[in-house]
Design brief:
about 475 residues, Metallo-beta-lactamase, Chain A, 2 domains, 7-stranded mixed sheet, binds zinc ion
Length: about 475
């Protein structure tokens, strides 16, 4: 019986990793690192024994919580090829080398003796097994493309009857293809077929257009198993609030800050949101919605990821392909060596990592300079975990005494600057996601990648539309047969 096992260590937005056991083959879906935990607690429970040999590993996208433990998964499965989209290949390499650097630094700063969990050498070795596959094209687990013409000529329907009728694919050999997931550059959903089962794993999914990334390409159902992210399950979509409207609000807010002589800090992830906001800024400068001399700053890793957006523009599913982000926008690269002497500059916009989810990131360290001045502002543009510095700031504003501790090293300080939150999500709104789930008519649904409230909302909402579907919220280590 085919089965699905949750390899994460909890029901949460953490170290994503799942095991899919098909008739004769096993695949691992993602191998993430928990962004807030450290040491082995931040890793998924990856299968190690030879008896649980995996035939392939799949990477949906190059965010840390999906890709950060890939070298560990590969050390445990040295023969398994790793499949990803071509742009993800450009992003995963710098992500993992940066991760080694971060772990080496944390080993000393936080005294975590097991760090680094993998070395630069491990990453180099792991990369030898990476295979890129274009979107929409069927492949077998050896990475060989399946010729659609040949299939169509023989069988008429290349997609649904593939496995039973194709001699090359007998013996229940699994095949897969990628679908554009709309979340960040290179992000894909993974569709698998084995025997008579069809499976879809969404990874992180966005069902609306962003400035650069176009919305996901939804494959036709029905599916036997749908593994779906639920990030936004606890947030009702606000009626009439479009992305265009949020964009206008943010730009107006930045103009106001600049007009009063202030600077703006936007704590932001180096991959995905940084490039989206840069592209938005470029358009705004051109249209006159922001002063033409607005100076954006990004971090060093942000620059590396931005280069990947530029290098893959011709073969990725993004809008504004003609836009070369680094050449046309010319962001300044933040010099970490000068951080001790940092002072916000009037009319400048600091897009610095990360989303203030943890202490001691660039944005977290310099935030105190902004908080201290009424003319400056800190604008958040993404998810803020309640337990993170960003979440503490939010609470301090809502029901605190106007004081916050962003970093224990700097102590508590009064909030004098403007602080606002703008919702530029790169995840599907929950109502869109519910429609997506219903449209795929899955027999079995595994709800993953969401906090308790988000998972609970989908669990109660789905049966109203799909009363016969089996809905699972798999616990850590739980195996589901389907
Ligand atoms: Zn992601």
């Amino acid at each position: 019986m085919p089965s699905f096992t949750n390899l994460t260590r909890g029901n949460e937005i953490g170290a994503n990793s799942y095991l899919l056991e098909l008739d004769r083959q096993r695949v691992i879906l993602d191998a993430g690192m928990h962004p807030k935990l450290t040491g082995s607690a931040a890793t998924p429970a990856l299968p190690r024994s030879a008896a649980r040999r995996a035939d392939a590993i799949f990477l949906t996208h190059a965010h840390l919580d999906h890709a950060g433990c890939l070298p560990l998964a590969q050390l445990a499965q040295p023969d398994a090829p790793v499949f990803m989209s071509p742009p993800t290949r450009h992003l995963a390499e710098p992500l993992l080398f940066n991760s080694v650097n971060v772990m080496q630094r944390q080993r000393e700063e936080l005294n975590i003796s097991e760090y680094p969990l993998f070395t630069r050498h491990d990453v180099h070795e792991a990369m030898k097994k990476w295979r890129v596959c274009p979107l929409n094209r069927w492949h077998n687990l050896g990475g060989e493309p399946i010729e659609p013409k040949e299939l169509a000529r023989r069988h008429g329907d290349a997609e649904l009857s593939l496995i039973k009728k194709t001699p090359r694919l007998r013996a229940n050999q699994a095949i897969f293809r990628f679908h554009h997931a709309g979340h960040i550059l290179g992000s894909v959903m993974i569709e698998l077929q084995a025997a008579d089962r069809r499976i879809l794993y969404t990874g992180d999914l966005c069902l609306h257009d962003q400035t650069l990334m176009m919305s996901a390409a939804v494959p036709p159902g029905p599916f036997d198993l749908l593994v779906v992210e639920t990030t936004r399950g606890a947030q009702p979509s606000e009626r009439g609030v479009t992305r265009g409207l949020v964009e206008q609000e943010l730009l107006a807010a930045i103009r106001t800050v600049f007009a009063r002589g202030g600077a703006v800090l936007i704590p932001i992830f180096a991959l995905g949101k940084t490039q989206e906001i840069l592209a938005m800024l470029h358009r705004a400068r051109r249209r006159g919605d922001l002063p033409a001399d607005t100076v954006p700053h990004i971090g060093g890793l942000g620059k590396v990821f931005t280069q990947a957006y530029d290098a893959t523009a011709d073969f990725s599913a993004r809008a504004h392909r003609e836009l070369d982000l680094l050449r046309d926008i010319r962001p300044q690269i933040f010099d970490l060596r000068k951080i001790a002497r940092f002072k916000p500059r009037r009319g400048h916009l600091y897009l610095l990592p990360s989303g203030m989810m943890t202490e001691n990131t660039t944005s977290n360290i310099i935030a105190s300079h902004f908080l201290a001045h009424a003319e400056d502002a800190i604008f958040f543009v993404g998810y803020s975990d309640p337990d993170s510095p960003a979440g503490r700031l939010r609470r301090a504003l809502a029901d605190g005494d106007g004081r916050v501790t962003l970093n224990p090293r700097h102590g508590e300080q009064p909030i004098r600057s403007e602080v606002r939150y703008f919702d530029f999500t790169s995840h599907a709104d929950r109502e869109d996601l519910l429609n997506f789930i219903v449209s795929l008519a899955p027999k079995n649904i595994a709800l993953v990648h969401g906090d308790t409230a988000a998972l609970a909302w989908f669990r109660q909402a789905i049966p109203q539309h799909l009363p016969a579907a089996n809905i699972f919220i798999p616990e850590s280590g739980q195996r589901i047969e389907f």
